[in-house]
Amino acid sequence: LVGTAPRYDYGVSVTDSTSSNHQPQAVLVTGGNRGIGLAIARSFADAGHDVVITHRSGQPPEGLRGVVCDVTDSESVDRAFTQAEELLGRPVQVLVANAGITKDGLLMRMSDEDFDAVVDTNLAGAFRCARRAVKGMIRARHGRVVLVSSVVGLLGGAGQTNYAASKAGLVGLARSITRELGGRGITANVVAPGFIETEMTDQLPEDLRTKYLASIPAGRFATTEEVAGVVRWLASPEAAYVSGAVIPVDGGLGMGH
Ligand code: NDP
C-alpha cells in the first residue's frame, strides 16, 4: 500500500490527540436517516462538523449527505465507508454506530431468526463498522467510536433477550477496542439511552406511558437531542480521556448501570 494510499489531511496532529480542538471532524452516523441517529447527525452538522449518514433506502434527509449501507453486510459497510470518505475528503474520524432493530418476543417462543437478526444488526453491525472505521483512525492516530446501546442492555428486559444481549455486547466491544487501540489516540464508548421521545413512545397507551414515567426519576422521557448532546461530547476534545465508558442517558432509570 505504501505509495498508493491516498493522502488525506486528517486535520489533527499525529502527536497530540487533543489538538483536534474545535476543528471540524469527519463524522459517520449509521442509521442517521431517522430517529435518534438523525438527531445525532443534525447535532454534529449544526456544530460545524462534516457529516455523512447511512440509510438503507430512499434519499438522505434534507441537508445531509448519505450513503447506502446495510450493516449486516460487510461488503456494504466497506463500500459505504469508501463512499463516505470520498464525500468527506478524508477518513472517518468519528463513528457513531446507531443502527439498530428490535424483534421482541418471550424467550420460549423466540425464533433463531429473530435472535440472530437482532444480534447481527445491533452487535455484529457495530463490529463491522468499527472494524472498517479504525483503519483510518489508526493511521491518523485519532478516532472516536461511539456505540448506541440501551438501558435494556444493562437492566435486561422481559421479552427482549435478543435485544438486551446485543446491546450488552456493545459494552464488551467498546472496552476491547479501548484496550486494543487506546494507545493510538482512539476512544470507544457506549451511550445507553433510556426512554426517548420518538414516534414509538408517542404511540404508547396512556396507562403504559404513566407506568414507565413513574419508574424514571427524571419523570419524563428524553429528547433525541439529549442523546445527541452526549454523543457529541464523547467525540469532543474534552472527552479525549474518556474511553471504555458506558454513559447512561436515561433520567436515572438505570442508576448508572
Ligand atoms: P429507529 O427505528 O427510528 O431507526 C433505526 C435506524 O437504524 C434506521 O435508520 C434504520 O434504517 C437503521 N437500521 C436498521 N437496520 C439496519 C441495517 N441492517 N443496516 C443499516 N441501518 C439499519 O430507531 P431509534 O432512532 O429509536 O433508535 C436508534 C438507536 O438507539 C438504536 O440502536 C436503538 O436500539 C437505540 N435506542 C433507542 C431507544 C428509543 O427509545 N427509541 C432507547 C434506547 C436505545 P431504515 O430507516 O432503513 O430502517
From TrEMBL:
<keyword id="KW-0560">Oxidoreductase</keyword>
<dbReference type="InterPro" id="IPR002347">
    <property type="entry name" value="SDR_fam"/>
</dbReference>
<dbReference type="InterPro" id="IPR057326">
    <property type="entry name" value="KR_dom"/>
</dbReference>
<feature type="domain" description="Ketoreductase">
    <location>
        <begin position="25"/>
        <end position="199"/>
    </location>
</feature>
<dbReference type="Pfam" id="PF13561">
    <property type="entry name" value="adh_short_C2"/>
</dbReference>
<dbReference type="GO" id="GO:0016491">
    <property type="term" value="F:oxidoreductase activity"/>
</dbReference>
<dbReference type="InterPro" id="IPR050259">
    <property type="entry name" value="SDR"/>
</dbReference>
<comment type="similarity">
    <text>Belongs to the short-chain dehydrogenases/reductases (SDR) family.</text>
</comment>
<dbReference type="InterPro" id="IPR036291">
    <property type="entry name" value="NAD(P)-bd_dom_sf"/>
</dbReference>
<protein>
    <submittedName>
        <fullName>SDR family NAD(P)-dependent oxidoreductase</fullName>
    </submittedName>
</protein>
